[in-house]
Write a structure and sequence with these properties.
Length: 528
């Protein structure tokens, strides 16, 4: 312990029983109340207002009058509010009030901060989570460990498995590793925790089936195909028990994700982002993330089974091989194609071109497609479900393309499915295309400056709903990565698409549209 003479009892009483003393960087409030002495931080842990002007009641409590937070004077426990205030041991010797401001052990400090962080996480207290993360960082405790804990706290609260929170986590972790400023590092981690908290908030646990089965890639794919979650989870648990790392499993999960054109592209995106996250997290994150991923694949909607995509299966059957031309084919007309035409384009051009060349063409067409989005489909309320197309329909074509680039680049046997599913995105967006929009109006002349502007926007997006901020993040970073390997023309279209999206108004909640669609559907069962 490190005792410091803080103030004489006589001086303390002359000041009305409250005095603020500075010990190192700490500003400590010493209080005498009913012949008892207390020492706590003077700065309220909420926003830093001085507790010295707070109100002390007869129950050993002090109230910060700015926001009515109340603290126990002895322990520092927050009785009403969020964060606890630090309290310090003190003694009275020879008329001197002595304070030990050294604090508890680093291990105890870390445990207390994590306790507070968990409370903030379970209540989605954004400000508190930021403060607790900062305390970890300032104490020299790796704050990234909080991400692993948040995964463990919440992974069984996701009824349908993985969500955008987990996919965005991989991108935020990437930015965290690049960030030099503490402010940006805290933003990255706090955004991860906030999204995980949002998506699991107040949910009861949805337990994962127990059981263990030997790792078998083919059996995992078959179990997911049969939507047999219990069997698939047992195989995944078996892989973890055997000590297998993600690279040994990635091919099987890629096969399962591309078995259908499914879940609006999320299935493959989730697989790719899971691998990316696991590269940046402790090994203990593997099992909970794989349980989440497996559950989501078992629940994935299989959109190639609906009439809109009925041409997908015969197109896949017809695409049996690729040519050897490495030059990117012309995309004339492709970006404005419907689903059958886009699928046919892939099958025809595959006879001569390599999959990598076709990928570049489909990527370019997807970007052109996005530039021409008719935003009335997103903004005007009176739209049927079929016509309710938003920016997300276009951003997914790019984030899915990035996953195809990475995973089909590793597992070439899946190129046919990946390319045809990219074509499905192009075709499904055809009804929302406005051909009068001119791409040159949205061209970005200084792409380096644009990247910086977008990065700044990501770090201060101002969006309340994480589903929207995660798409700002994921789409922006995907375009940066895709553009680095694209032709000049494709790169120009990618940045034009991004520029147009970020310049457009965003409608976070479709209030009138939801009411209109509900009335339109339900009224069909009633006489007019």
């Amino acid at each position: 312990m490190e005792w410091t003479n803080a103030i004489s009892l006589e001086d303390l009483r002359s000041k009305g029983g409250k005095a603020v003393v500075n010990i190192g960087p700490k500003q400590i409030l010493i209080i005498e109340e009913d012949d008892n002495l207390f020492a706590i931080d003077n700065r309220c842990p909420h926003e830093g207002y001085p507790l010295a002007v707070g109100t002390i009641d007869g129950e050993c409590r002090i109230t910060c009058n700015w926001h009515n937070w109340k603290f126990d004077l002895k322990s520092g426990t927050c009785l009403i509010g969020e964060d606890d205030v630090s309290s310090y041991p003190l003694s009275l010797e020879a008329g001197q009030v002595r304070v030990d401001a050294s604090g508890p052990s680093l291990e105890s400090i870390g445990e207390k901060i994590m306790q507070g962080l968990r409370i903030g996480f379970e209540k989605r207290q954004y400000g508190r989570m930021a403060r607790e993360l900062t305390r970890l960082d300032m104490h020299g405790i790796d704050p990234k460990g909080a991400v692993l804990e948040a995964i463990l706290w919440s992974h069984d609260k996701f009824e349908f498995g993985m969500s955008h929170a987990h996919a965005a986590m991989a991108d935020w972790l990437g930015l965290y590793e690049q960030a030099e400023a503490r402010e940006e590092r805290i933003i990255c981690l706090n955004e991860i925790l906030d999204h995980l908290s949002h998506d699991s908030l107040r949910h009861s646990p949805f337990p994962y089936a127990e059981g263990l089965a030997p790792w078998n890639a083919a059996e995992l794919v078959a179990a997911i195909d049969a939507e047999d979650e219990a069997k698939a989870l047992a195989i995944v648990r078996g892989a973890c028990a055997e000590g297998l790392a993600w690279p040994a499993l990635e091919g099987a999960f890629t096969e399962a994700a591309l078995a259908y054109y499914q879940d609006f592209g999320h299935a493959l995106i989730w697989v790719q982002k899971t691998g990316e996250a696991l590269q940046r997290l402790d090994q203990r994150a593997m099992e909970p993330l794989l349980l989440l991923l497996t559950r989501s694949l078992c629940f994935a909607t299989r959109e190639d089974l609906i009439p809109q995509f009925r041409h997908y299966a015969p197109s896949l059957a017809a695409l049996t091989s690729f040519g050897d031309k490495t030059k990117t084919p012309s995309i004339n007309g492709l970006a404005m194609s419907g689903v059958p035409q886009a699928l046919d384009w892939v099958v025809r051009h595959a006879q001569e071109h390599t999959p990598e060349a076709l990928f570049q063409a489909l990527l370019h067409a997807s970007a052109v497609n996005m530039v021409h989005f008719d935003t009335r489909r997103s903004l005007e309320p009176y739209q049927t479900p079929t016509n309710s197309i938003s920016w997300l329909g276009f951003t997914h074509s790019l984030t899915f393309a990035d996953a195809v680039r990475i995973l089909c680049g590793r597992y070439s046997e899946f190129w046919a499915k990946g390319l045809l599913q990219m074509a499905c995105f192009i075709g499904r967006n055809r009804p929302a295309i406005d051909e009068t929009i001119r791409e040159e109006d949205w061209r970005v002349s200084d792409q380096a400056a644009f990247r910086k502007t977008l990065r700044d926007k990501i770090f201060d997006h101002g969006l309340a709903e994480p589903i929207f901020s995660s798409h700002v993040l994921k789409t922006g970073l995907a375009v940066f990565q895709l553009a680095d390997q694209a032709s000049e023309a494709c790169r120009d279209s990618l940045f034009a698409a991004l520029n147009r999206m970020f310049s457009a108004p965003l409608k976070e909640k479709q209030v009138r549209r939801i009411a209109f669609q509900a009335i339109d559907l339900v009224s069909k069962d009633f006489a007019s």
